[in-house]
Amino acid sequence: MTEPIVKFQNIHKSFGDVEVLKGINLDIHPAEKVAVIGPSGSGKTTIIRMLMTLEEPTDGDIIVAGRNLWKMEKKGKTVPANENHLREIRGDIGMVFQHFNLFPHMTILENCMTAPINVKKEPKEEVKKRSIEMLERVGLGDKVDNYPSQLSGGQKQRVAMARALVMRPKIMLFDEVTSALDPELVGEVLNVIRDIAKNDDMAMILVTHEMDFALDIADKVLFLDEGIIAEQGTASEVIEHSENDRLQEFLHRFR
Ligand code: ADP
């Protein structure tokens, strides 16, 4: 078995007096597609935000591609990570949010090009070529010069995906990317994610309430409940065959 690309080692997270994650242990392997399901408030987004370095665990270690996210070695000692260390790890991680966070004053092509050029300092022509390829891949090759305001919600979400893919991340995070969309736009976005999941070898972590979608694409499903991984296994084991009462109750609300 290859080394995990992401490891959570006994992760605890509290906000004030409230402990929202109570000891999460998790290995995600390269190319693995992991769906995270669970009731509202169970800690799903906190897991994603920790990987994005937006929240620091109260206790435990997160290892990404062999590097400890929050700690680094300096002169033989372990010290808190500095901004350079965090930035390097962030380069391996792409994210698509519930709200698209596109820059309104830039065309969709410019939206895709800005991070590789300005953050990764890559050559403009190469980034442009790759951005166009990715926009074609998400079905927006004819919209490269449009502005976000000229697109539907589903199209904006597809731009957000192309923008993340242009960075060539090793890990892609999707946090309830369809929950802010009108129902008729959900399918087109799920189809693009499905295409990425089936054809790309990056690891993917998806927080989703779309159970049929999770069954279709996930190698592994985690049921998060009250801050612990209450159930995990293949999609079929967790979604179709688990006897966990809390999970059953949760699934009844979504199926
Ligand atoms: P989920 O994504 O499963 O709905 P979250 O990870 O968003 O759950 O939140 C888990 C719990 O942590 C919730 O009770 C939420 O109110 C709380 N929480 C999340 N972020 C913060 C924060 N920045 N400050 C205080 N409480 C927070």
From TrEMBL:
Membrane topology term: Peripheral membrane protein
UniProt subcellular location: Cell membrane
All residue ranges annotated as the ABC transporter domain in the record: 6-251
Nucleotide-binding among keywords: yes
Primary location group: membrane
Domain of life of the native organism: Bacteria
Keyword tRNA processing listed: no
Keywords per UniProt: Amino-acid transport, ATP-binding, Cell membrane, Membrane, Nucleotide-binding, Transport
Entry-linked SUPFAM superfamilies: P-loop containing nucleoside triphosphate hydrolases
InterPro entries linked to this entry: AAA+_ATPase (IPR003593), ABC_ATPase_HisP-typ (IPR030679), ABC_transporter-like_ATP-bd (IPR003439), ABC_transporter-like_CS (IPR017871), Ectoine_EhuA (IPR014343), MetN_ABC_transporter-like (IPR050086), P-loop_NTPase (IPR027417)
GO molecular function, one term: ATP binding
UniProt-listed Pfam families: ABC_tran (PF00005)
Family: Belongs to the ABC transporter superfamily.
Name under which the protein is recorded: Ectoine/hydroxyectoine ABC transporter ATP-binding protein EhuA
